[in-house]
Structure formats: C-alpha cells, structure tokens
Design goal:
Length: 309
C-alpha cells in the first residue's frame, strides 16, 4: 500500500534545549487509520504540528502525498485537514459561514452542496445558522471537524477529537471516521481514550518522551503482547498458594478467593488441563473459572512503564 505520509529521522528541539521529538521515522499508508498513543508530553501534538507546518522541525524530512512539507509546503498542506485539541472558533460566526470560510482559505471554489453533505454527516445541518457560542462543547468539536474536511483533504489529523465529548457523540464520530476511511482518507488519531484506538484503528503507534516505541498492526500487537488470564474462583479462601502449584507462577487475588494463571493462547499447550487437575490434587475446591484477555490499554501501560524504567 502506498505511503501517504513519510516521516524520516524527525527531531524537534525547542529553545532551552528541550528535545520534543528524538529521531522519529514513520510511514503512514494511504487510506489507513493510525492511532498514536502516548502520555501527556510524549510528543504527539508536536509531531502533528510538524507535519501540518505549525512547528518547524529542527532536522529530518516530512512528505505528504509526495510533497515535501518545507520545500513544497502549499501542495503538502492542501492535502491535510487538522482538527486541533483546542476549540479555537469565532464565537459569533454562524456554523455554515465558519465552514465556508475554511474552504475559501485553501482557494477552493464555493460548493454549498459539499458543505451540506459534510454538515449532515456530522449532524450539524440543523445548526448551520446557529452561532458558534450557542453550541455545546461536543457540537463545537464537530464544527472543527467540518472545517477540517471543508477543502476535501486526503489526510486528516484528529488531535484528541473526542475530549470532553459524551459517549453518544463519541460513537457518532467513530462512525464518521469509518466513513472517511471508506472514502480513502488517511486518518491519524491521537487519543487518551484507548478504547477509541481499539475500536477503529488499523495500526497503533506508541510514543513516549519523543521516541516512537513501536508501530504495529493492532490485531498483531494484541496477539503478540496481549496476555490471557485464567481466573480460578475458590470455594474457600487460602492464605497462600500451595507449594505443589509453584511451577505455574500463580497469583492470589480477591483476598485469597481466586487464583490467576497467565498463559499464551498461541502456544501448543496452555497447561490449563494439568493446572486444574493439580489444583484439585492440592485439596482446593473450584467454585468457578473465567478468562480475561488483556486490552490495548494493558499493553500501552506496560510499554510506557518499560520505557520509563
């Protein structure tokens, strides 16, 4: 698949010596959704700002659709839509006027039919004549998305797009993102809501302290780094794990009322059958058993902790 965005050895050092990006290299494929995860201060917004031309890189190169963002800035920027974290809208401007103005900034001809389609897609059509200051926070964020889409970009950056948005609006936005992907738009999403990445991303990137720790297919990442746990609920609590079960590296939880066994689902043998037999042989009575698959959040937290160590 063709790379729509190419980032090579990108560094950004601010006055005072703070290095926000430390040699980031990344290729983002045309038509994919890449979720970029990282704690506050990891470098997510700086990376987006560099690609969009808001921040000037200290070194390294960026191209969008084959256009260098420094030497061919206008052509590169024409391909990009940006939805920033901050709600930076003119409060007394009408919704339709705000979106129409953004389209005009890119030198695009007036196309009210297109803008109507965008506003309807974002459930904003009924609010087209409302002033921005009359809208809820969630609706204002939708206006930001509409403005970003007004010039028909092929790459869309969503920097924490659902921050402060209720669950219903968040899911509506996920549906909108899915439709944009179906239309061939490349989407880069930064988010604190890890379930968002788990729900809609094709690939996941993890960034911390200005370094890209990994970029991997979401399903492959979860299969490779995810863990599955067998939780054995006991009829009676135990103070400690019997010596006969030491080889299984079990954990006690819920005040000794449950044992946790971690295993690899891709292994030829999980060891579960032998474990259950040996639990019974050790004199413990099972009340119930259940399993838990580690989530993308578990994986993300583990990676960031490893980087901080």
């Amino acid at each position: 698949m063709t790379a729509m965005v190419k980032i090579s050895d990108l560094r950004k050092i601010y006055d005072g010596g703070f290095e926000a990006l430390k040699g980031v290299s990344l290729e983002i494929r045309e038509g994919e959704i890449l979720a970029l995860l990282g704690p506050n201060g990891a470098g997510k917004t700086t990376l987006i700002s560099a690609v969009c031309g808001i921040a000037v890189p200290t070194s390294g190169t960026i191209s969008v659709g084959g256009h260098d963002t420094i030497t061919d800035y206008r052509a590169a920027r024409q391909l990009i839509g940006l939805v920033p974290q901050e709600i930076n809208l003119e409060p007394f401007q009408k919704v339709m006027d705000a979106v129409r103005f953004s389209r005009g900034l890119f030198g695009c001809k007036r196309d009210d039919a297109l803008l109507e389609r965008i506003l309807r897609q974002l459930s904003l059509w009924d609010k087209r004549n409302a002033k921005v200051n009359e809208l809820s926070g969630g609706m204002k964020r939708r206006v930001l998305i509409a403005k970003a889409l007004s010039h028909e970009p092929r790459v869309l950056f969503l920097d924490e797009p659902t921050a402060g948005v209720d669950v219903e609006l968040r899911r509506d936005m996920w549906d909108t993102v899915a439709q944009l992907k179906a239309d061939g738009v490349t989407i880069i999403l930064t988010t604190h809501y890890i379930e968002e990445a788990e729900a809609i991303a094709d690939r996941v990137g993890v960034i911390a302290k200005g370094e890209l720790l990994l970029v991997e297919e979401k399903a492959a990442l979860m299969a490779r780094m995810g863990r599955k746990e067998l939780i054995v609920d006991l009829q009676e609590p135990v103070a400690e794990i019997p010596e006969a079960l030491a080889a299984y590296d079990l954990r006690l939880i819920e005040d000794g009322r449950a044992l946790v066994y971690t295993y690899d689902t891709t292994a030829d043998r999980t060891g579960i059958t032998n474990l259950l037999a040996e639990i019974a042989a050790a004199g413990l009575t099972l009340r119930d058993i259940r399993t838990h698959q580690s989530s993308l959040e578990d994986i993300f937290v583990g990676l960031v902790k490893e980087d901080a160590a």
